Amino acid sequence: MDEPSVRGQSAGFINNGSTSRPRTLRALLRQCRALLAWVHRAVGPREMKIHTDITAFHGVQRPVLTTGTFDGVHLGHQVILDRLRTVARREGGESVLFTFHPHPRLVLFPNDNDLRLLNTPAEKQHLLEKAGLDHLLVVPFSREFSRMLAADYVRNVLVGGIGVHALVIGYDHRFGRNREGDIDLLRRIAADSGFLVEEIPAQEIDHVKVSSTKIREALMAGDAARANALLGYPYMLSGVVVKGRQLGRTIGWPTANVGAIDPNKLIPGNGVYAITATTGRGQFKGMMNIGVRPTVEQHGERTVEAHLFGLEGEIYGEAITVRLHHRLRDELRFDGMEAMKDRIALDKVDALRALEKV
Length: 358
Fold this sequence. Notes:
The protein contains eleven helices and twelve strands. The chain is of the alpha/beta class.
């Protein structure tokens, strides 16, 4: 590991070998920030810390904050997270995402059963840590919280509760009761309270052309490839392998039935998909059917069944995470088990071809 140069310009204490001291307080602050940024780079990424209580959110160095639900942690979110990390390094601070659970729509519209989420809490935490976030602050969302005035939210929660040093937001960010808060309000309060506000310009996010809604629509249509392109990673389903009717093994194609899936998690449209899966036995390529199994049941419930290539033995009760890479075909009704068996053999060929570069 290189040490900060005493004579060089990286640390900014002495320029061109000179022993002159900073002439102004502003210059000294710049040099301190440069040193803190160097330390951050030298130490490297840290394990993300998860907090669930604002009143206990202490000891964070210069919190550089963004806020939102970040469902999917998609490419648009990643633009914001990249800027968040950049500002944190510049300010010698630590990056923080302030978010809520449950999703606000589930609280404000409890009878609206249409919303399905792209991430479970555990999946979101994994993606945010992978993105290099320092702190994830998750607080309960309630109707009372939703009625908070925008100015009170900034002064009492962001400043008084979290101690925000800098706030990074996307353009046209709205918050507070009836979405009354905006960038102008933030800047006025920031001037009085002494924190920085950085708004990401529209053009830096619009070029990504992505939203959680677009991704949900693609998945419900079974377009896994488009959804993955917008997410920046393969869409995943996590659950536990449960025992089914075990019909697959009778035709030479045993399946792992994925159960215990989070009830708020979006399950993609029916069909056969090329997948990769992670279990306690390791990682596997495979194929998966989502649907109602019309060949063997007339009015079957919707199931998620994966066949993992090369897996031997049973994995009932084990955790499984499946990543969808490509949709191979619609779910079909066959004339009999032999016809279904023959088509599954062709599906394997197609799946292996689709997964060649995975």
